[in-house]
Every structure is written in structure tokens, then in C-alpha cells.
Amino acid sequence: xxxxxxxxxxxxxxxxxxxxxxxxxxxxxxxxxxxxxxxxxxxxxxxxxxxxxxxxxxxxxxxxxxxxxxxxxxxxxxxxxxxxxxxxxxxxxxxxxxxxxxxxxxxxxxxxxxxxxxxxxxxxxxxxxxxxxxxxxxxxxxxxxxxxxxxxxxxxxxxxxxxxxxxxxxxxxxxxxxxxxxxxxxxxxxxxxxxxxxxxxxxxxxxxxxx
Length: 211
Fold this sequence. Notes:
Elements: E1 8-14, E2 17-23, H1 27-31, E3 34-35, H2 45-57, E4 62-68, E5 71-79, E6 95-103, H3 112-120, E7 130-135, H4 142-145, H5 149-161, E8 166-168, H6 173-176, E9 182-187, H7 193-203, H8 205-210
Parallel strand pairs: 3-5, 6-7
Antiparallel strand pairs: 1-2, 2-4, 4-5, 5-6, 7-9, 8-9
Domain N-acetyltransferase: 25-189
Pfam families: Acetyltransf_1
Protein name: Acetoin dehydrogenase
């Protein structure tokens, strides 16, 4: 599967000033930046920055950032699903994952997350792909936001909707482990029917395995 990446950029006003949103970032461009220490939802910021650099090297890897000068204050990652997850078992070259989205607390409420998702999905080449995201409540920053699980879920759903992702049902055990968890996806308008059917089978893997 050919991975064509079309660079896009825009500006957005935030509480910290004018942010530049851009991507997909090359490894070389990303290397000259630094990650805000508040971006630590998945691992310490220093380790997360190394992970972003590694994703930028991947043929399919896409990093879209929100930055203040050379300081990254938010990002979205897109890459193939983790080999240990069920979504990789179908070995679909046209299924990729919006794996992470994170914005520092100081920029929340300015629409940065929605703008990042929208920009990340604006590339026409993604019309050839099914883009999924898996939302798990244990990754959500409930403490600092003060939101309930359900209010946070609504916020994440609206954010993903701005990029065209909608909820899909699944029997994946991690998703069904809590009613707030969900699978969302955007099926590009050039995705062939056989890929859509393969996606349906992997969504209901347990049903098809026992039938």
C-alpha cells in the first residue's frame, strides 16, 4: 500500500498565543522541536518524544503537531495498529489507527484537539484507508478536567466526529470491558468493499471465529 502524505498547516489562537498546526511531520523537522513536559498521558514526555520520532520514520507514520514556536503543545499520531492488538490480525494494508491525541492542559478549551483531528483527516490520500481509533476511559485525564467518565466520552466523541470518525460496534474485549469505551472509525470513500467486509469481520472476530 502506497503511503502518500500531503503536508498541511494552519494557525489557531489559544490561551498561550498563536499556535501553528501542521503535519504530517518529517523526522528531520520533528527532531528540531521539543515536547512540552505536560504531554505525559502515555509515558514521560522525554520518552514520548522518542516514540513520536520513531513513528515519523515509519512509511505509514503520521505526526500532526500543534506548536508554539518549536515547542509541541499537542499532537496526533497515525500508524498501523499494534501487532498485539486484534486490529492488526487481519493484516489489512488499508487499515490504520489514530493511535494517540494529546493536548496540554493550558491549551484545552481552545479547540486545539478538534483542529488537530480535522487537519489529520484532511489529506485526500486517507480516502484510501479505514482510520480507526480506540477510546479507553483509563487513558482519559478525568482528574485534571473534573469531567465525569460520560462527559469525557461525549467530548472525545465530538472531537473525533470533526474528523469524520463515528462509533462502530465491536465484540473486542477491551472495548466491551467498560460501557464508556468505544471504537470509532472513518471509512475513506475509495476503500473497496472487500476491505469494509474484512473490517466487519475483525470487529466481530469472536462471532466469526465461532460460527
